[in-house]
Write a structure and sequence with these properties.
By secondary structure, the protein is of the alpha+beta class. It is 30% helix and 24% strand. The chain binds 4-amino-1,4-dioxobutan-2-aminium adenosine-5'-monophosphate and magnesium ion.
């Protein structure tokens, strides 16, 4: 092997390196191999692009024996001349001169030997599925969206604020929590009343994985002005749906001096920015997924990024549903928590564009949302998307200490766990707002995939913690 610098496949294909018979060096995994007695063609992928580079092995230079380990899934290192391709489908190819095999992949054993596996099958092979075209595309889009999110907020002067993953408060009420403990499962120490004695646990109290970084995020916003969190959150709910995970990533901006309108404006601008960023930066991957799974994907993304979202109160939304004449599985009446079928009727059938629904009944929303003058609704806002349903949930926050205490008491939330949160309302309280975007729901929307388990490398859902 010559001492030359490796190129990524993407660089070779985008014309960054011109084919002037110069020697290039590539490393990657074999996707396919075909050919005849004189020449063998290998499609090599190194993860940098949905596209493969074609490598041509002339059989007068390479023996059958030397090429034997080159089967689907094997990892190889090739040097050769970058030349204009004579075949269709690519502009350049590599005429191989040197070959090194890093690792063979026995065709009798390699699970991804054939093309066209179902997504269900690939879920069972989550350790290898990043090597498929579909998951390569999804994971590159996922990366681009994460980057876009940081860029959006950084450009706006928001600070990335790190909130803890282990917490001792379940104030949010967003879902059942996963407990974190070092107490022995069998012989946990007990108090005199026979209860587990958490004072002898690692943190001296009961602890769990966080369901949201919002409450700590509010501490950041009431000091730094505008912050956002972006981290994993955990919910031990037993919801086996294509839109729920037990471990999912959430982005939670929190802004001092923002009211609900400012909050809605930010949410709309933010989500459109992310979609446009993906359209501009992930065109090849989106085109591939569209071709494979969802022909309307690009149109849908452009449509949502270009439309003004409808803004509507919950009460108006309920009226539309009641007048619709539709027979819903869950009957509609003021006060219900909207089900996916209701949200999707509004978005996909009635308005045919994203809807921001506001001012929900206080009984179905969290304690921290600002109470409206009517005394029965709160300044909540949910952004509802086609195919997805709720993609963002947020609100203006209750900044009045007294009203917040009342909301906590009405819901019987243990006060002693809340003292640090209440201090924001005791000292220099301000009007403020925020929201949470479910990252995987955004990735689901942008990739056009059907199941949230297929847009995170290692999904966590009830009964599944293999990889
Ligand atoms: O509506 P949620 O529960 O709101 C909060 O957690 C607030 N603390 C947010 C805030 O105001 N800072 O969750 C926010 C979003 C949902 O709209 C949804 O997109 C996503 O998180 N989400 C889930 N995504 C995947 N799996 C789950 N189990 C999810 N639960 C919520
Ligand atoms: Mg919600």
């Amino acid at each position: 092997m010559k001492d030359i610098r490796r190129s990524r496949v993407k660089q070779l294909l985008c014309g960054e390196i011109t084919p002037e018979q110069q020697t290039v060096d590539v490393k990657g995994w074999v996707r396919t191999r075909r050919g005849n007695k004189n020449v063998q063609f290998v499609a090599l992928n190194d993860g940098s692009s949905i596209k493969n580079i074609q490598i041509v092995f002339p059989l007068d230079t390479f023996s059958e024996e030397a090429l034997k380990p080159i089967t689907t899934g094997a990892s190889i290192h090739v040097q050769g001349a970058l030349v204009p391709s004579q075949g269709k489908g690519q502009s350049v190819e590599i005429l191989a001169e040197e070959l090194e095999v890093y690792g063979a992949a026995d065709p009798a054993e390699y699970p991804l030997q054939k093309k066209g596996h179902t997504l269900e099958f690939l879920r069972e092979k989550a350790h290898l599925r990043p090597r498929t075209n579909t998951f390569g595309a999804v994971l590159r889009i996922r990366h681009a969206l994460a980057f876009a999110i940081h860029k959006f907020f950084n450009d706006k002067g928001f600070y990335y604020f790190h909130t803890p993953l282990i917490t001792a408060s379940d104030c949010e009420g967003a879902g059942a929590m996963f407990q974190v403990t070092t107490l022995p499962v069998k012989d946990a120490p007990r108090t005199e009343d026979g209860e587990i004695d958490y004072s002898r646990d690692f943190f001296g109290k009961m602890a769990a994985l966080t369901v949201s970084g919002q409450l700590e995020g509010e501490l950041g916003a009431t000091a730094l002005g505008n912050i956002y969190t972006f981290g994993p959150t955990f919910r031990a709910e037993n919801s086996n749906t294509p839109r729920h995970l037990c471990e999912f990533w959430m982005i939670e901006p929190e802004m001092a001096f923002y009211d609900i309108r400012d909050n809605m404006d930010l949410a709309e601008e933010f989500i459109k920015y992310c979609i446009n960023y993906a359209l501009e930066n992930c065109a090849d991957d989106i085109a591939f997924l569209s071709e494979m799974y969802d022909k309307e994907l690009v149109d849908r993304l452009r449509h949502v990024a270009g439309e003004e979202f409808v803004r509507l109160s919950y009460t108006e939304g309920i009226e539309i549903l009641e007048k619709s004449g539709r027979k819903f599985e869950f009957p509609v009446k003021w006060g219900i928590d909207l089900a996916s079928e209701h949200e999707r009727y509004l978005v996909e059938t009635h308005f045919r564009k994203p809807v921001i629904l506001t001012d929900y009944p206080k009984e179905i929303k969290a304690f921290y949302m600002k109470l409206n003058p009517d005394g029965r609704t709160v300044r909540a806002m949910d952004v509802l998307f086609p195919k997805i349903g709720e993609i963002i949930g947020g609100s203006e926050r209750e900044e009045s200490y007294d009203k917040l205490i009342q909301a906590i008491e009405e819901r019987h939330i243990p006060m002693k766990d809340m003292w640090w949160y209440l201090d924001t309302r005791r000292f220099g309280t301000v009007p403020h707002s925020g929201f949470g975007l479910g990252f995987e729901r955004l990735v689901l929307f942008v990739t056009g995939m059907q199941n949230i388990r297929d847009v995170i490398p290692f999904p966590r859902f009830p009964g599944n913690c293999e990889f």
